[in-house]
Input
Amino acid sequence: MACFFRRSVALQLSKVCGLSEDLLVPLISASPASKKQSFADLQVFVKDLVQNEASVPNGDLGKTAQTLANQLKPDAVVEDVIVTDRGVLRFRLNKHLLAQKLLESISAFPDGFGVKSDLLSSLPRRRTLVEFSSPNIAKKFHAGHLRSTIIGNFIANLKQALGNEVIRVNYLGDWGMQFGLLGAGFERFGSREKLQSQPLQHLFDVYVQVNREAQSDESISSAAAEFFRRLERSEEEAMKIWRHFRDITIHEYQLIYKRLGVDFDHYSGESFHSNQTQNVLEELRRKGFLKTTLKGTAAVDLSESGDLSNFATLVRSDGTSLYLTRCVNTPSRIFINIPRSLTDKSQSVHFQRLFSILSLLGHQWAQRCHHVPFGLVQGMSTRRGELVFLEDLLNEAQNRMMQNMVRSQTSKDLEDPEQTAERVAVSALIVQDFKGPLISDYKFDWDKVLQAQGDTGVFLQYTHARLCSLLRCQVCELSPCTDFSSLVDNWSVSLFQHLLRYDEVLLQSVRELQPRYMVRFLLILSHLAASAHRELPVKGSPAAVAQARLHLFHSVRCVLASGMRILGITPVDKM
Ligand code: ARG
Output
């Protein structure tokens, strides 16, 4: 209910500074929480008021702040206004009211706390397409695909939580010369049995082998080229084989995505382009954007001066399509509005070109397309060696987590310890990945990732499970109407102060499409919850106090769980 308090402060302030309430609301923020806080407050930077309103005098910000503060009167919501020398106005909130409003609003909306906040009301709500994961059939699944998968899932979850209709698309690398090789290779080295029992492994093996043999055996290269030509001509026999490869790959991936808690509405892919490529190329040519070069290729001139100093090739000299050609063609065929594509940062230029070409084609929505680039992960490997299959990484993370749980004897009364280990391990991978700016590279380290103490996904899960256990163990049930007046101690206030920030975190996350704000928020929430859990016993406290504390812990658990879900983490109840 941060918005209730922000509104009240805005109302007061608008009377003395001339700005409207609506303009003031976004300028009001919750001060960062600290441990053992005795007061909770919202703050306003006077420089922000000056920037927005000419009648607020510039000059000594401290003095201006003091002048404004002198005109403000305490009321039922704001008990006091404090001025700091850096020109910050702090509105000290009535602690009883804060406890009551926050806890009531979390109870009323346990899974969606904060999403209806005023602060978020001006955000557009649209149909949004998020394209992510997008691995290549028969090729390695590298760390970049894992990043794309979890980051894309986060963006989709966040957009959805904030009221957008989200369409999740997996744009598979399912077309191109590699299928020529794969088709030709399968005829020579393929095994139907292996394709049944270990599809991804077998397709990958065939692909590696045929690539190797093709280097010394020209007949293979020409067979591959022939196979691909048959595909481009949509010849039924070749298409049948291709479709089979694609179907079993999708089936296998779906099993793995399920373990990651990820789901797609559409499996699209580069193959989707084929029927319409000619039309789009024709259109570009007709409009004068596509030019044939001296080398016989066809390219779109993207330079300012029209001298081909910046161009994008769309047709090879032998007439075949490229990765970019296929991308240009695909989006218009699926009903999109705001596509967000996720790949590592090496593809940024590709997407710039893609969006420029889509604009040239007159697609209005091209301006709202975004590429979300991310950095590289170094050293992500498994005991089998270099990462080839996502499944190996998941298995290894799960096994390592299982060992840790057995060692610390926490898994003894779990119904399904493997599943718990997997969920915790996945959260560990996610938090490790989401801690820094997405564009940064990072070094992967199994020991760091899976630490139970410290700022890890394991710690988030551990906090969640502990809160669940606290709520489970209580003799008194959580009853609806409670007297929250006991929750004015420093530990409760610190938690409330922090919870006040949740909508700001949602806003910052969606503006920047970066998960690190949410990660940091949840880690701090967990640290504050750990102190509160230590200091505020439920058992043995007078009934009203015990009830109030239970409500507090219940609310913290709800917010922790919804934040975790947005990140793509499934919270565990026991571990
Ligand atoms: N399959 C590509 C790769 O592995 C990523 C596809 C990204 N999306 C796109 N529309 N190009 O690098």
Summary: Residues 131, 134, 136, 171, 173, 327, 341, 343 surround arginine (CB under 6 Å). The first strand starts at residue 28 and ends at 30.
